[in-house]
Design a protein that fits this description.
Strand order of the largest sheet: 14-15-13-12-16-17-18-19
CATH superfamily of the largest domain: NAD(P)-binding Rossmann-like Domain
Distance between the termini: 72 Å
Number of strands: 19
Shape: elongated
CATH topology of the largest domain: Rossmann fold
Largest sheet: 8 strands, mixed
Number of helices: 25
Helix content: 40-55%
Oligomer: single chain
Mean pLDDT: 94
Radius of gyration: 30 Å
CATH class of the largest domain: Alpha Beta
Low-confidence stretches: none
Number of domains: 3
């Protein structure tokens, strides 16, 4: 591991201790082998003049739940140092009293809660203090002879603290151990099964001590031939089984979840280890991970339904073994799975949560193999892990990120999404929590939808193989499919039957009808394993009230309506709802060029504006209106409706 300190980057911060604290905190956060997703904490002690002109010493410490990689000035909580230092002298202090006292000692009531390690930072007699969960150090002290190995590597240059739960108890223990310490001889403090602290009166020194001590641990693994020991194997692919696994996890979770599949060779190699069941289920790299990943992963194979049910039962037994007082069992569903032959899968109601678990799993799998090579992986005992998992201060970190909507954790596929109805619907579904794949032949779709959980794909719906690949890619990305919005289409120019150009007719039938059939056929294996699956076809008012010159379009839309009706009959027993929307006069779509719009208005002897509002309500229909209706139909309001045809046309007298 190398120092990332850059004199050019740091020069603007050298005279501002708090800005410098932000800079070196981000340096730590850039290195995933030191901290992951909100882990670790940093602080700086600064003398400031208060409102009354008195000088006070303030500890600026990372707010609980903030991420070192992206932290800003307002991510640090300012706490009166004297109050924190006096707290350590108390004989006892409950978590609630600790938090209350810390908050009442804050200068800024709008700042985040101070880290649970605030007292620990306060008692160390240095301006800058850094705390990380360095992989190499944690791997060392998660081996059978961890403490002995640490002595061999660092000698007396570090203080080794036996594991105690973070917070007041840990600070009290460290306070006792550092009495009469010659700090000139000490470079850091290693907390068994927890992490490492470094400190200095200079920000760069404290940061580079952390890098140095972590590097020494890495060097030891290299020397012992225990670093590059990860197994490697090519992953297989079974997308229907992935979708089934995701469905079973969602049922256990009580809500839809996304599934992030990790099929990297190193992950698949770990999943294929002959002693997998033993090493993978001993416990996490650090108890700090348990709130994200639970104490152990699910091991799954040929029967996901049985495997998930067994995990849930085992988790409830784990809770019963260790519960105290009035604790309530948390959701027993697994948060990640190891899938021999295929890799690992992480689950979350949001993709960001699944991504965090994927990263934690990756670091854990490497650490387990290195620990085994160095004498045996032996993490913290189950009881201590349980105490952290059910610690209110840790649970609070997750609550602030929680949000709920009708489509949270659901997966949607929308066609014709580069403009108009498709674009509006894809955006509306995403805004309500769904992960969305947006398809269109127009390359612009990739620019419009370019987020991790909102992905644009170029796809020619006339190409059956391309359609199948797009659907499979959706499952690879998110684990399944719940909502299909079959929208893509064209509006051919007006042409009477006796003058019909055969190529125009064939093109309309192919795009406006046949492509929808091919798409549905490709999606069905996954929709049958979806969560409350719903299919919505975007048809047309022309089905009920066609106009002269629109036979190529009207016949195709009538065909798609019949396709949807038959699909509702066939798919109802599988729990798949199939409904139809019949829009009329939606002019903010690519179907309506100025030429077509002008021609249609002229045909009806109207101005363009009159033509746009030629319905009974005299309103203009927009793509967003169709999108809103599609979301309602895909959601719980239509949970018991299938085969319905719903017009959205402002009231068409011919349809009525």
């Amino acid at each position: 591991m190398d120092s990332l300190w850059n004199d050019q980057e740091a020069k603007d911060f050298l005279n501002d201790p708090l800005q410098l604290r932000v800079y070196t905190s981000r340096l730590l956060g850039r290195e995933s082998a030191l901290v992951l997703h909100g882990g670790g904490n940093t602080s700086v002690k600064i003398k400031e003049c208060n409102l009354f002109g008195d000088t006070e010493e303030i500890l600026y410490i990372k707010g609980s739940g903030c991420d070192l990689a992206t932290i800003e000035l307002d991510g640090f909580a300012p706490v009166k140092l004297e109050v924190l230092q006096r707290m350590v002298d108390l004989e006892q202090l409950s978590d609630a009293d600790m938090l209350t006292t810390q908050r009442t000692a804050m200068l800024n009531p709008y700042a985040p809660n101070p880290s649970v390690e605030s007292i620990m930072h306060a008692i160390l007699p240095f301006k800058y203090v850094d705390h990380t969960h360095a992989d190499a150090v944690l791997t060392l002290n998660n081996t059978k002879h961890g403490e002995s190995l640490i002595h061999d590597i660092y000698g007396d240059r570090v203080i080794i603290v036996p594991y105690v739960k973070p917070g007041f108890v840990l600070a009290k223990k460290v306070h006792q151990m550092i009495q009469n310490v010659d700090w000139a001889e000490i470079e850091g403090i290693i907390l068994m099964h927890h992490g490492i602290f470094t400190f200095a009166d200079d920000a760069r020194d404290s940061y580079e001590r952390m890098v140095y001590l972590a590097s020494k641990a890495e060097a030891y693994f290299f020397k012992e031939g225990a670093w590059d020991v990860g197994a490697s194997a090519e992953a297989g692919e079974d997308l229907p089984k992935l979708a089934l696994l995701r469905k079973e996890i969602s049922k256990a979770h009580g809500a839809p979840v996304l599934a992030r599949w990790d099929n990297r060779p190193e992950v698949c190699g770990f999943a294929n280890l002959p002693n997998l069941a033993s090493v993978a289920c001993r416990g996490p790299l650090t108890p700090d991970h348990v709130i994200r990943s639970k104490h152990i992963p699910l091991l799954t194979g040929e029967n996901p339904e049985e495997d998930v049910a067994q995990y849930v039962q085992d988790y409830r037994e784990y809770f019963e073994r260790h519960k105290t007082g009035s604790l309530t069992c948390l959701n027993p569903a697994p948060l990640w799975a190891i899938w021999p032959g295929y890799g690992s899968v992480a689950f979350g109601t949001e993709l960001s949560a699944a991504t965090i678990i994927t990263d934690i799993a990756w670091h854990s799998m490497l650490a387990i193999q290195r620990g085994e090579a160095l004498g045996g992986w032996q993490p913290l005992a189950e009881k201590e892990i349980f105490e952290v998992e059910y610690w209110k201060l840790e649970q609070a970190k997750l609550k602030k990120d929680y949000r709920k909507s009708d489509f949270q954790g659901k997966i949607a596929l929308v066609t014709g999404a580069a403009n108009g109805i498709g674009e509006a619907t894809a955006k509306a579904l995403h805004a309500q929590g769904a992960a969305v794949v947006a398809l269109d032949i127009n390359p612009q779709v990739k620019e419009i939808f370019n987020q991790a959980d909102q992905v644009g794909m170029i796809c020619d719906l006339m190409n059956f193989e391309a359609v199948k690949e797009a659907v499979d890619s959706t499952v690879r990305l998110f684990g399944g499919l719940d909502i299909l919005i079959s929208n893509a289409g064209i509006f051919p120019k007006s042409m009477r039957i006796e003058e019909m150009d055969q190529s125009l007719w064939n093109r309309s039938i192919d795009i406006n009808l046949s492509s929808h059939q091919r798409l549905l056929q490709s999606c069905l294996p996954y929709l049958k394993k979806g969560i409350d699956p719903s299919v919505i076809f975007i048809a047309s008012k022309n089905v009920a009230a066609p106009g002269p010159g629109a036979s190529a379009y009207s016949v195709a839309k009538a065909g798609v309506t019949q396709l949807a009706r038959v699909a509702a009959l066939e798919l109802g027993p599988s729990g798949i709802r199939v409904n139809i929307i019949h829009p009329d006069a939606v002019f903010d779509t690519a179907l309506w060029t100025e030429e077509i719009l002008t021609a249609r208005a002229k045909h009806y002897k109207m101005t363009v504006q009159e033509y746009k509002t030629k319905n009974l309500l005299r309103v203009e229909i927009s793509s967003k209106d169709i999108a809103n209706l599609a979301c309602v139909m895909a959601g719980p309001v239509f949970a018991k409706t299938t085969g319905a045809q719903v017009p959205i046309d402002g009231g068409n007298d011919r349809v009525i």
